Amino acid sequence: MGTKLIIDTDPGVDDAFAIALAALSEDVDLLGVTTVFGNVGIEATTRNAQRVLALCKRGDVPVAKGAARPLVHVHPHQARYVHGTDGLSGRSAALPEAERPVEPGGAVWLLSRLLEASDEPVTIAPIGPLTNIATLLSARPDLHHKIARIVVMGGALGHGNASAAAEFNIWSDPEAAQRVLGGGEVPCVLVPMDLTYRCAVDREWLETLAASNPMGAALTALTPDYLAHYRKALGWDGMVLHDAVAVAEAIRPGILRTEAVPVSVETSFGPARGATIVDQRRPELREETEVPEGGNTVDVAVDTDLDGLRTFLLERLTLR
To answer: In this protein, which residues make up the domain named Inosine/uridine-preferring nucleoside hydrolase (predicted)?
Structure first.
């Protein structure tokens, strides 16, 4: 097996594509999936994760239910306006029923158990709010060395989507995001929406996926509400597979070009809450003005071969 991977997720249409990408890739050892509140509530995200794995015939992959709310403050709202009332454009029930029950110990317990049992460092791909991962890093410092890297889908260098300044995953739990991205104990890659938007797929890409096999047809059937939102957001007939872009980097390190820069998260209340502050100044200038709280260095994804990435995603999702 290749990359040992755990996905922490809040399905979500793009999360479903990301889970399928990992579950169908033969060079990935998908150790487990943990769930978190976010696009919809925790019961729905957990059920959706189980059903996507069942669609992929991966009943061997354990699923554990994680945080139902942020670490500190109440979650303002969910993203039903993007993903539909059930998180999957109202079509979750069309997927197969779960092949195995939810693990009884919860997300942090499963994350800890999988890390403890692994004979080599594990990549964690959090593609929802970072509440579970912040809790893990705080509760189990003895396991930091078992984490190869954390590949986060989240943040924005320019404008946000949940607010003018903040991307949804980071905005949903800014305190958790600051704990993960600002902690410095484990290497982190941040895949921001600036890049994921550039990786958007068009109607032709989706039609090719739908025609490829029953798996592709089932995934494409989950997209109507998501497509309707992104027609407005993009201005053309396509959609953004945010989380699948991050999981692609988790599977194939280097498919995204990254730059190591200081990153911190705005946790105060106000219009910038949840913003990712990414210091893209030249290193020489940063050194002149450095302050102790300037932010931990994170590998921020800034570019990729767009057509190559879309081809990679399509090939992996049509393997079976």
So the answer is: 5-308
